[in-house]
Specification:
The chain has 85 residues and is mainly α. It is built from 2 helices and no strands.
Length: 85
């Protein structure tokens, strides 16, 4: 096991990028769920699709965070191995 920590630091820039990517994912999930709502009223369709997209986007956000930490850790391990040679 590597002695390196995850090494990932949260900055204001990375937080803003995460919010933007997550908002785009929410819009895409909402558009994807709209045809599956059993209503003809546009506001009802939008609300149900939007609220249904929230848990999907929460899982997307968690996966994004895990990916970033894992990717940074892999980079540090690779760098650590290169330094040993």
């Amino acid at each position: 096991m590597s002695k390196a920590s995850s090494g990932y630091k949260v900055t204001a820039k990375s937080a803003v990028i995460d919010v933007v990517i997550t908002a785009i994912a929410w819009v895409l999930f909402t558009l994807w769920f709209r045809p599956h709502v059993m209503s003809y009223e546009p506001i009802t369709v939008f609300l149900w699709a939007g609220f249904t997209a929230l848990p999907a986007v929460a899982i997307f956000w968690l996966c994004l965070q895990m990916f970033k930490v894992t990717f940074k850790h892999q980079q540090l391990v690779k760098q650590e191995k290169a330094d040993k040679k």
